[in-house]
Specification:
mainly beta; single chain; seven-stranded mixed sheet; four-stranded antiparallel sheet
């Protein structure tokens, strides 16, 4: 059984920064990929970023590349999403997810999901 809990969301001004955390509970995440997704009002959930648990290999959506950084602390079983230079269009509920296997960008590819945390970027 895997449990994921996101935190760190809030309201931030455009151009500002925010750091999201995903506390993960499992016996081990060896061989797993951790993913971040987001869903804005009226839009479909979309891929943001991913990182492999062991190797730390990262992937980013084009819309956030260069602004967001995903990382993980294996000792603390925590995944982070550092969001810089935030834009109004980054406003969404951000979800942490995980799957066993190689990185993918599809929603269906992920098995476990957190409850989401709201990020609001004001202009």
């Amino acid at each position: 059984q895997v449990q994921l809990v996101e935190s760190g969301g809030g309201v931030v001004q455009a151009g500002g920064s925010l750091r999201l955390s995903c506390a993960a509970s499992a016996r081990t995440f060896s061989g797993y990929t951790m993913g971040w997704f987001r869903q804005a009002p009226g839009k479909e959930r979309e891929f943001v970023s991913s990182i492999t648990w062991i190797g730390g290999m990262t992937n980013y959506a084009d819309s956030v590349k260069g602004r967001f950084t995903v990382s993980r602390d294996t000792a603390e079983n925590t995944v982070y999403l550092q969001m810089n230079s935030l834009k109004a269009e980054d406003t969404a509920v951000y979800y942490c997810a995980t799957r066993r296997g190689i990185p993918v960008r599809t929603i269906a590819g992920y098995t476990y999901w957190g409850q989401g945390t709201q990020v609001t970027v004001s202009s």
